[in-house]
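Per your request, structure below.
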């Protein structure tokens, strides 16, 4: 089993432990949640970064974006290897969510 840490908000870590190679519905649901949450949190953090004026705040946000990006690609790689059909569906849903919620992704 591998432990993935998905950072939701500064100071509030959520730890999701899943076996990245097991295809149980619960594990796939957890992987999907981590993938979508890390991607959306990266987008919101990037927006905050764009508005931050403090060098220290920008450095903190840059570190957070890096952690979220690494988490996203770790889960994505596992899904790509073990559940490619689910990955395609999840990424399609994620794109739709970004287009619906964020103004920067036109439909």
């Amino acid at each position: 089993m591998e432990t993935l840490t998905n950072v939701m908000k500064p100071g509030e870590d959520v730890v999701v432990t899943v076996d990245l190679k097991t295809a149980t519905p619960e594990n796939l649901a957890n992987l999907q949640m981590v993938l979508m949450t890390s991607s959306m949190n990266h987008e919101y953090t990037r927006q905050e970064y764009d508005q931050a004026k403090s060098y220290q705040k920008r450095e903190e946000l840059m570190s957070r974006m890096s952690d979220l990006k690494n988490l996203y690609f770790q889960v994505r790689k596992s899904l790509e290897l073990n559940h490619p059909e689910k990955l395609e569906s999840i990424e399609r849903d994620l794109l739709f969510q970004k287009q619906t919620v964020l103004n920067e992704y036109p439909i």
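The mean pLDDT is 82.

Regards,
D.
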